[in-house]
Amino acid sequence: MANVRMKWIVCCTFLLSILVTSSSAQTDYNVGIGIADITGPAAEVNMMGYANPAQTSRGIHLRQFSRAFIFEDNNKNRVVFINIDACMFSAGVKLEIIRQLKVNYGGKYTERNVCISGTHTHSGPAGFHQYLLFDITSMGFVRESFDALVEGIIKSIDRAESKIRPANLFVNSGELLESNINRSPSAYLFNPAEERAKYKYDTDKEMTVLRIVDAEGKPFGMISWFAVHCTSMNNTNRLISSDNKGLAELMFEAEMNGEHVLPGKGDFVAAFAQANEGDVSPNTQGPHCLDTGLRCDFNKSTCNGRNEMCVAFGPGKDMFDSTRIIATYQFQKAKELFDSAFTKLTGPVDFRHTYTNMTDQTLPDGKRTCKGAMGYSFAAGTTDGPGAFNFAQSTTSPSPVWNFVSHLLKNPSKAQIECHHPKPILLDTGEMDFPYAWEPAVVDTQILRIGQMFLIAVPAEFTTMSGRRTRDAVVESLKSAGLQVEPIPIIAGLSNDYADYVTTFEEYQEQRYEGGSTIYGPHTLEAYINVFRNLSKALVSGSPVAPGPNPPDLVSKQVSFLPPVILDRAPLGKSYAQVTQQPKAAYMPGDRVEVKFVGANPRNNLRLEETFLKVDYMVNSTAWETVYTDAHWQTQFHWESAAFFESVVTIYWDIPSYQKPGMYRVSYFCDHKELGGGIQSAQGTSSTFKVTNSQEKMAMLNKKWEKKKTILERINKALKGKESKSAQLTNLVKPK
Ligand code: ZN
């Protein structure tokens, strides 16, 4: 009898499983998604982006992550798109990653079908480049930064690979306003009037969103592309941060995974990727003079002739607030587009890649690119972070003093000067190779196809109009080669390698920062467009493209002047991770908790996939639950060095309005270096403190008020008593 019942159960389960399977949608793709930690050294390392040597890391606000997406069609063709919370990508890191992927996966993942794109945060540790110019302000190559990227990116791909499942893809796009402005509007105006008339704005306002769902229709991933610099955090910030796009990623993931899931640990992964952001700033209040508050000079971005006084500010009251606002806008728009993404991607997954020597391109009309060189305006910086020396943007006439200094390094050849005209050459990087190449000559050029979507992976920062022209050219080439569907072209900015900026030929004539940093001369954009046209045609016709010349692998030659951590010391009578300032006994939502510890240099252990701090909630008398780490927006991990190899760690926790009332504690994880070089660990935990909720807060305020009221009443009574006594006395002495 039992046997018969068992058979029935097995049979029913089988039928049910058939029903469930058949009720799930047919899928067009297989998709695997993985996330991993890539946070670099949180002390003493220069931040990549502003080229300000004084801006070195001193803690963590938001951790950096790598988010990998593997797409496979039904014929097993694969591409990988990886979004990293870093300023850009670097050829040296890509070469190392591809080398490891070839060992681990055979020929499945190569330089040709893997695209790694940087979000362009300016608050991540530098030193991961193989070309000298980009590592100068970080005192050369920083092995810890390089290794953190390699290790984390590989881990994110491994995780994606282990989670490949049947999926469908949907795309949507819409306009996001109030979130970006053009920071070189005068250069934009150099573009032909009839071309400008085709567009409503001088930056792209369109956000494109990819919604990834499994066979049951349950979403498990999202990628959005929107053009805006990750420079909401300015060049005074010393905390590692993934800036506006990184925070938007955390917001989206918290929304989908639930607030209780710690950052980087959830199943749903959301990437906010970069596009043609070359001339696009998040500092929407625009540039103003620090001294007078007035508008800066429109063409040169100077105040009374001084470049460093002209700075653009975001929409918020400070850089943290601005980051939060620009992140929130991107998150909300992406969520809205995600929820209403119904255009299904169908068709093949494919790719074309070639290495292009950008210094020797000849266009069909005979125009040529040049060997790399930086103009004077490059040193002026931008209104997001002005340069330190008195350079101004829109400089087309060289200063004799700087000419002398720069020509001490390398005197540009006559041909080089003519090739770059009207750019005055400050650094003749393309003709400098001591101790090794200063800037790339050979770069990755690549297009990934996922159904109707074409990701144009550019190894540089394309300005708004440069991106528009590139997209139009790709669409035109795809169609003329016979593509039957309406393509969706997307610029995937700062991908695979870094070769500075790309302006249009017309914008180049004004020589603002972006023009001064367009390193292959006035025809750089046309040369790129030419390459992407060829890749597009090959994609449609199914023909192969030549691999092109190999880029050099310079990682083994790197020079490094950043001193290592020598030693840590705890103050006399104190131990590592000991609390030196305890929290108060109680806090209310909206308050900031501050706890200080005896610290050590965080470079001793990057604590990848882990944390330097945690905030625990007391579940009961024996159990604690970790509710915040150093990757959360609500926490800050500050590190300061003190005399005699000592250091101080301060942990802040901003208690949000919705925080569950109860008992909490803060911990710090310390790794300190001993005299012999060994690294030891220590952990310190604060005293327990109370967080009240808003009702309790009201009750407490009421209690305080009641107390005050009673005191007032007593005083009143006493005063009245005195009055009546004085009246009695008056009566006594009054003559009758
Ligand atoms: Zn930039």
Give the SSE map.
Elements: H1 2-23, E1 29-37, E2 43-46, E3 56-60, E4 65-72, E5 78-84, H2 91-105, E6 114-118, H3 143-162, E7 165-175, E8 181-182, H4 185-188, H5 193-196, E9 206-214, E10 219-225, H6 243-257, E11 269-273, E12 280-281, E13 286-289, E14 310-313, H7 319-339, E15 343-344, E16 349-357, E17 374-375, H8 376-380, E18 381-382, E19 385-386, H9 400-409, H10 414-420, E20 425-427, E21 442-450, E22 453-457, E23 461-462, H11 464-480, E24 488-492, E25 501-502, H12 505-508, H13 513-516, H14 524-541, E26 579-581, E27 586-587, E28 592-599, E29 613-618, E30 624-629, E31 635-641, E32 647-654, E33 662-673, E34 679-685, E35 689-691, H15 694-733
Parallel strand pairs: 5-6, 10-11, 22-24, 23-25, 27-35
Antiparallel strand pairs: 1-4, 1-7, 2-3, 3-31, 4-5, 7-9, 7-15, 8-12, 9-10, 13-14, 16-21, 17-20, 18-19, 21-22, 26-28, 28-32, 29-30, 29-33, 31-32, 33-34, 33-35
Helix pairs in contact: 2-3, 6-7, 11-14
Bound molecules: zinc ion (ZN).
List ligands, each type once. zinc ion
The number of E-state strands comes to 35
Helix run count: 15
Give the termini separation. 118 Å
Count of discrete domains: 2
Percent in strands: 25-35%
Q: Helix content range of the residues, please?
A: 25-40%
**What structural class should be given to the helix and strand makeup?**
alpha+beta
Radius of gyration: 30 Å
Largest sheet, described in full? 9 strands, mixed
Unreliable runs, pLDDT <50, ≥5 residues?
9-23
What is the residue-mean pLDDT, rounded to a whole number? Answer: 92
Task: Please state the overall shape, judged from the principal axes of the Cα atoms.
Answer: globular
